[in-house]
Every structure is written in structure tokens, then in C-alpha cells.
Amino acid sequence: MHQLSILILTFNSSKYIKPCLDSVFSQNFEDFEVIVVDGGSKDGTISFIKENYPQVVLIENIENIGAAEARNQGIKIAKSEWILTLDCDIHLEKDFLCKMTSFIKKLDINIGSFQPKILNFDKKTIYSTGIYLSRIRRFFDIGKGQSDNGNFNRLRFIFGACSAAAFYKREMLEQINEKSGYFDKRFFFLIEDVDLSWRAQRKGWKALYYPEAHCYHSGDSSNTSQKIRQYLCFRNRYYTIIKNDSFKNMLINCFLSFPYDAFRFFHLLFSNPYTLKAFREIFQFLINETEYYSSGK
Q1: Considering its fold, how many domains does the chain have in total?
Q2: 108 and 239 belong to one structural domain
Q3: DSSP assignments along 193-207, one per residue
Q4: pLDDT one-digit tens code per residue, 24-37
């Protein structure tokens, strides 16, 4: 059994996968396995991996099943106690794995996830130093877009880890696993790591930000259009709240968040053709979740 399983998702990722895998296999740490889950790439990604990285465990899907379900596929076959999820456009510093696996040995037993400092590819600005949950149930990557000027160099607890480069403990994943997966496959893509983090919090697991190790994120490797991203973010935010928040908190926060939510809804209604589709899906999701919990399952 390896000390670490590294799980990378690809979808038409020929532009990104070589730098990513090269940064993994050039580490000064070797006790890991690499699992790549492909979402039906048509640009030669699969053949490139097979020809150049035969040591990689490759799962081939005939279509794009979404980031959430793709990660679930990789987690199911991973053989290690800790799993590192990486976007395919992540590049690791040379000593990244050595630092992070050494940090694992110092963790308390209730730490279920942690993440490094994720910088943009310019190595000067922050991409994520952890997920933050606001009172009105908005989710942010802490520090995103800010200069890396020393303000993010402190070890601290966070709401959750950004799945672009996140370490998850197998024990935690198994405990929070549900019918729709470790990552909820109904989300497809975006905010599924927030939902997982919230479920972990509810089970008593903690998350940490560890700033001593760095990696670099180049951009939107999924090539998802802005309108689709807006639709998924809008819909999945409500999926997350419906699943995880208490009814009492939802009532209280409804009043606090009404100005933001109302403005956002009407703005998207007139600017994004997927808004009504999202609203219908949220309503159906609410019905399904209510029926599920009322059944006592």
C-alpha cells in the first residue's frame, strides 16, 4: 500500500497534463500511486498518457460525467489512507509531496482534510488558501486574486479544502459517503468540495490550511463557458444549503441574504438563459431531499 494516492481529472487536457504529471513524477518523494480519471477526452489526452506515463492507473469514461463523479471513481480504487485530488492544470513545487506527507504525520486524528497554498501560475497572486463560508451562505476561496505578500503564511483552520489541490483522509471520506457519492454527483461540477466540507464539519472533522507547501494553478482547464459556470454555481449553492443547513438557520439567513439573493436571481434571469432551468432543478432537489429525510432513511 502506498502512503498517498494522487487523483487527477482530465477532460480534453492535452495542453495541461504533461506539466502536471511531470511535476508529480519529479518529486523527491516516491511512495504514491497516480490515478487519472478521464471524462471522454477527444483531443488525444488518453493516448498521450498511455504512451508516456504507463505507471498511471487510467480510468476511461466515454463521456464527461462531471468532476464530482469522476473523483468518486478514483477514490473507490485508491489504495492509500490519504488521497490528494489535483486539477490537471496544477503544477507542484519540487518538494511539495515531501512537505505535505511529513505534515500528515503531525496531524491530530480529527483532521480530515487540508490544503496547501495554491497560487496562480504567475506565482504572485493567490488562487486559494481554503474555503470560507459566510453568514449569508456564500462561499469564497480565501485570498483569491490577492497578492501573496505574507498575509497568508499562517497555519490555520478553514471551513474546507479547495479540491483543486486537497488532501482527504480515507476514514473521513468513508464516514461521510452517501448514496450520491463521496462528492455528490448531482452537483456535476463546482461547489461539490464545499458540500463535502460541510458534511465533514457536521460529522466533527476539521480542515487545515498549510502554507509551507505551494502549487500553481493555471486556469479554467475545463474550458467551461461563463454562463454554464454561473448556472452551476447558482444551482449548486442552493443544493449545498438545502443539504447541510438547519431549517432554523435557513429561515434566519433568508432575511439576511435576501438583498443579495434577489439581486443575483433577477440579474441572472435577464442575462443567463439557464436561470429558470436552475430554479426548476433547485425546487426538485428540495422535494427530493424532503422526501428522503421524511422517510427516516
Answers
A1: 2
A2: no
A3: HHHHHHHHHHTT-EE
A4: 999 999 999 999 99
- Tell me the one-letter amino acid at 14: S
CA dihedral 140, 146, 148, 152 (to 10 degrees): -40
41 and 111, same domain (yes or no): yes
- If you average pLDDT over every residue of the chain, what do you get? 93
Say if residues 216 and 117 touch (Cβ distance below 8 Å). no
Q: pTM for the complete prediction? A: 0.94
pLDDT computed for residue 135 by the predictor: 84
Kindly state whether residues 198 and 290 are assigned to the same domain: no
Question: What integer pLDDT is reported at residue 256 of this predicted model?
Answer: 76
| Residue 162 pLDDT level (bands cut at 50, 70, 90) | very high
Give dist(CA 32, CA 40) in Å, integer.
25
CA distance 286 to 281: 9
Q: Does the structure show a pLDDT above 60 at 139?
A: yes
Q: What share of the chain is helix, strand, coil (3-state, %, to 5)?
A: 40, 25, 35
Per the structure, the complete domain to which residue 236 belongs is given by 226-294
Q: Specify if 124 maps to a domain.
A: no
Check if the beta carbon of residue 246 is closer than 8 Å to that of residue 201: no
Residue 99, classed as helix, strand or coil, is: helix
CATH, residue 74: 3.90.550.10
Cell 480530515 found at: 112
> Exposed, middle or buried by CB within 10 Å (0-12, 13-18, 19+), for 31?
exposed
